[in-house]
């Protein structure tokens, strides 16, 4: 009966967050078995998870006046990090989390290592703790570990870790639809696994779910959030060929645009071929000498 309840909880999580990857399911199951962070999911009814959910609020702007303490110990307004020039990745976590928060941050870090994008250069990366007991020293230590693991020059200035008062972190969580709760039995937080993608003015553009984030999905989400301003021409062409599929919770090939692009390329190639033939014939005619007329 114990295992049945766990299986039901895993199935509930995968259905709720659109996941179907067997590897992800196995990791989630392992996390649930090995950490008391997920002990609440093995209650009699998976519906008990209703306090741990995501309510999508696409198109809404997060509050810019919320104030947090960054990893340098400075109290700053969230709006300072949304100056209209770069999109942002936002992760809500708590630094003493024994399992899930680390899996999410590790998953994002792995994806970023496969991209040419650097925090601070192409986008901003904000990690906000929702545990009011945590200090900026702990945030700084966490940042040092993850920035070091990323191994990308300049990312230290673009990836910021925050702590703050409960009313501030709760307001941010409510704004992005991140529902979590404190489990008094385990003395830990229960929360979903998600990365928020924000536009340069702090509008919610996309939700990326799970603990593994394909680098293509992260790149396309940032391109969308920046309205195509991030990345090179090849990146924007990639964005033209893919679109977000809400059913699969990921980016899939956009067949219509692929066909249009293929048609345009065919016309271009055919036009070049015809122009080349025309130029060749014209050269041949210009090389012909005029026929001399005999005298009478």
Describe, in plain words, how this protein is organized in 3D.
By secondary structure, the protein is α+β, with helices and mostly antiparallel strands. Among the domains are: 2-49, no CATH class; 54-212, Glutaredoxin, CATH 3.40.30. The protein has nine helices and 13 strands. The strands form four sheets. It has a seven-stranded mixed β-sheet, sandwiched between helices. A two-stranded antiparallel sheet has the order 1-7. The radius of gyration is 26 Å and the shape is elongated. The model is unreliable at 1-47 and 230-237 (pLDDT under 50).
What share of residues is helical?
40-55%
What spatial order of strands do you see in the largest sheet?
3-2-6-5-4-10-11
Question: Distance between the terminal alpha carbons, to the nearest Å?
Answer: 117 Å
- Radius of gyration from the alpha-carbon trace, in angstroms: 26 Å
The secondary-structure class comes to alpha+beta
CATH class of the domain at 54-212: Alpha Beta
CATH superfamily of the domain at 54-212: Glutaredoxin
How many separate helices? 9
| CA-based shape | elongated
Strand content: 15-25%
- What pattern of helices and strands is seen along the backbone? HHEEEEHEHHEHEEEEEHHEEH
Using the 3D structure, state the CATH architecture of the domain at 54-212: 3-Layer(aba) Sandwich
CATH fold description of the domain at 54-212? Glutaredoxin
The number of distinct β-strands equals: 13
Q: Kindly report the average pLDDT value.
A: 77
Spans of at least 5 consecutive residues with low confidence: 1-47, 230-237
The main β sheet shows up as:
7 strands, mixed
């Amino acid at each position: 009966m114990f295992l049945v309840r766990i299986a039901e909880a895993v199935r509930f999580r995968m259905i709720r967050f659109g996941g179907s990857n067997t590897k992800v399911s196995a990791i989630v199951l392992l996390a649930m078995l090995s950490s008391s962070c997920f002990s609440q999911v093995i209650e009699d009814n998976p519906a008990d998870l209703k306090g741990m959910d995501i309510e999508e609020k696409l198109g809404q702007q997060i509050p810019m006046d919320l104030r947090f303490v960054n990893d340098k110990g400075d109290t700053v307004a969230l709006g300072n990090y949304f100056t209209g020039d770069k999109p942002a990745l936002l992760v809500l976590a708590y630094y003493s989390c024994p399992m899930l928060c680390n899996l999410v941050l590790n998953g994002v870090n792995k994806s970023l290592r496969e991209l040419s994008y650097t925090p601070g250069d192409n986008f901003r990366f904000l990690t906000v703790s929702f545990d009011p007991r945590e200090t900026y020293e702990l945030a700084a230590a966490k940042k040092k570990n993850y920035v070091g693991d990323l191994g990308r020059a300049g990312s230290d200035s673009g990836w910021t870790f925050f702590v703050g008062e409960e009313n501030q972190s709760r307001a941010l969580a409510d704004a992005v639809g991140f529902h979590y709760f404190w489990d008094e039995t385990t003395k830990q937080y229960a929360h979903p696994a998600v990365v928020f993608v924000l536009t340069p003015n702090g509008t919610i553009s996309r939700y990326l779910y799970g603990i593994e984030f394909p680098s293509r999905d992260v790149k396309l989400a940032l391109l969308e959030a920046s309205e195509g301003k991030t990345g090179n021409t090849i990146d924007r062409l990639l964005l033209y060929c893919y679109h977000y599929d809400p059913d699969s919770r990921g980016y899939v090939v956009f067949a219509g645009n692929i066909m249009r692009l293929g048609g345009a390329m065919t016309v271009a190639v055919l036009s070049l071929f015809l122009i080349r033939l025309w130029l060749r014939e014209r050269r041949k005619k210009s090389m012909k000498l005029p026929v001399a007329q005999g005298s009478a």
